[in-house]
Amino acid sequence: MRNRIVSALIVAGVLGALWSAYVYAVPSKPLPPVFNPAPDPYARGIYANGIVESYQSNGENINVYPEVAGSIVRILVNEGQAVAQGALLVQIDDTVERAIVEQQKSQTEAAQALLEELRAQPRRENLEVARAQVAMAQANLKSLQDQLDKQQRSYDIDPESVSKDALDNARNAQKVASANLEVADRQYELTKAGAWVFDIRNQEKQVESLAKQAASSSALLAKYSIKAPSDGVVMSVNATVGSYVSPQGAYDAYTQGFDPIVVMGTSRGTLAVRVYIDEILIPRLPPPDRLSAQMFIRGTNTKVPLEFVRVQPYVSPKIQLSNQRQEKVDLRVLPVIFRFRPPPDVQLFPGELVDVYVGAT
Q1: Fold of 65-92+227-264
Q2: Residue-wise pLDDT tens digits, 203-225
Q3: What are the C-alpha distances in Å from 126 to residues 6, 131, 181, 190, 263?
Q4: Can you give the C-alpha Rg of the chain in angstroms?
Q5: In this predicted model, what pLDDT tens digit does every residue of 175-184 receive, in sequence order?
Q6: Which are the contacts of 37, defined by CB distance < 8 A and separation ≥ 6?
Q7: What strands, in cross-sheet order, belong to the sheet with 249-252?
Q8: Which of 37, 277, 301, 357 could hold 45 in an S-S bridge, CB 3.0 to 4.6 Å?
């Protein structure tokens, strides 16, 4: 009885193994793809990767870098926000530079006040003092001249009546008084003439120099307020309040490089796609008047015809991952720029990778 049970189990195991082998040997039907791979619509099309960009008549996206260094104290825009030319985007701490501007403006005002003082000379009070000094010198000379005349007449009548020493002292006193009157007259004329023309010119140059310094500092102060260079849409803000930025941009700890603090794109409905043609395929590229291209949006079955714009005539290394020059790449590509109208039922954003076929019409 026991042997029969063992034999039955062995036979059942063998049959189960044969059935499993048969079932697993039958190939399973593959699942249908979520979307079809991008087909080549041309007889001899050139496949290339493309990056969606905001459309610019020249260049790529608008990368905003500060011209000064400092810590960000305010960010006044959000990503996706439409801004007008001149709108304030980011404010950098300008405390020190603002104090310098105020100081230089005060120095300019002080120099201007001194220049106005020189131009307003002679001062009426100073002129009256100089005139009074002339009158006093005239009176002093008159008094000493009268004393000299009296002593001279007395000496002429009787030489014994006046000593020679007293007569000489009177003559010397008259000469001193006459010299003092001449000095007072010249001082009066100098005061009446006002400031020296060369002093005025020198002060004018001082005012001009200080005013230019203040204007230069004011221009530098304005650079702490980063404004939109044109109308557009804020696509990316790569810094936050408290971040230190410099003319190199904002440091990115992930890529260990520097990024623009704000990236802007155009607000128009037209987008651009920058296509990178492999240097090996450049000889197969059709001439510009026959150039045609179609873009396939990844993750969908949507294809979009592209309009040729221009060729960037410089073959450069292909850098797409982090946009850093430190990447070790051997492939070189030729950028070709197309433009298109985004389909209404598909969302597309600048920076998105797409598949492009380039051919000839």
Answers
A1: OB fold (Dihydrolipoamide Acetyltransferase, E2P) (2.40.50)
A2: 999 999 999 999 999 999 999 99
A3: 139, 9, 17, 11, 66
A4: 47
A5: 998 999 899 8
A6: none
A7: 225-227, 88-92, 70-75, 244-246, 249-252, 257-259
A8: 357
Q: Could you give the percent of the chain with pLDDT greater than 90?
A: 38
- Please tell me the class of the 122-194 domain: mainly alpha
pLDDT digits (tens, 9 = 90+) for 259-318: 999 998 876 678 889 999 999 999 999 888 888 999 998 888 888 999 999 998 888 887
pLDDT number for residue 59: 67
The pLDDT tens digits for 86-117 are 999 999 999 999 999 999 999 999 999 999 99
Residue type for 120, please?
A: A
Q: What is the C-alpha separation between 14 and 23, in angstroms, rounded?
A: 14
Reading the block at residue 131, the tokens are: 């005139």
Give the Å distances, CA to CA, from 124 to 9, 94, 157, 185.
136, 46, 50, 17
Residue found under tokens 């292909």: 318
Domain assignments of the chain as residue spans, ordered by start: 34-55+268-361, 65-92+227-264, 95-117+201-222, 122-194
User: CA–CA separation, 37 vs 139, rounded Å?
Assistant: 117
Which CA distances in Å does 55 have to 50, 84, 138, 276?
14, 17, 90, 16
Cis peptide bond N-terminal to 313, omega within 30: no
Residues 164-190: what's their mean pLDDT?
A: 88
The C-alpha atoms of residue 261 and residue 254 are separated, in whole angstroms, by 15
- CA distances (Å), 324 to each of 34, 259, 329, in order? 33, 10, 11
Tell me the fold of 34-55+268-361.
Elongation Factor Tu (Ef-tu); domain 3 (2.40.30)
Which CA distances in Å does 209 have to 119, 205, 308? 18, 6, 54
